[in-house]
Amino acid sequence: MKTHHYKTTIQWTGNKGTGTSGYRDYERSHSISVENKVIIEGSSDPSFRGDKTKYNPEEMFLSSLSSCHMLWYLHFCSEAGIIVTDYTDEATGIMAETTNGSGHFTEVTLHPAVTITEESMIEKAKQLHHKANEYCFIANSVNFEVKHIPTVWVK
After folding, report:
1. What is the pLDDT of residue 86?
2. Residues of 43-70 as b/e, b for ≥16 C-beta within 10 angstroms?
3. Is the pTM of this model over 0.85?
4. What Cα–Cα distance (Å) separates residue 101 from each residue in 2, 47, 48, 98, 107?
5. Burial 80-90 (b: 16+ CB within 10 A, else e)
6. CA 20 to 30 Å from 87, out of 4, 66, 129, 150?
7. Tens digits of per-residue pLDDT, 41-89?
């Protein structure tokens, strides 16, 4: 089996001078960095005292599922001779918070809107979402089904 290794650096930037001396005494802000890439500013969800102007882990999780699916989908379309000219996905997810404050995602649905060049390829273009879902590394790493509701247009 071939393996791939990844490394990210998370740096907490929310110390307001007294560290974590109290639950309300620190910000949840942090930076996410990977060598030679743009830094992403993160925080927790505003429901958990986070900064709504920064990405939170839940949004990044959805983005990972969505972008992995898209990359596999584009790959399979390319192999099948389907010319994709536009792709947008508005992914949605539901996270259940438990009584002890922990939580987990129970559902993610991808809503890819794809534009292709040939009407005769619409059905095949729709079918390839199933294959992309089967191959997506991130979807294969979660313990729930990642659903997808695609739309395909010709332009």
Report:
1. 97
2. bbeeeeebbeebebebeebbebbbebbb
3. yes
4. 37, 12, 10, 5, 18
5. eebebeeeebe
6. 4
7. 999 999 999 999 999 999 999 999 999 999 999 999 999 999 999 999 9
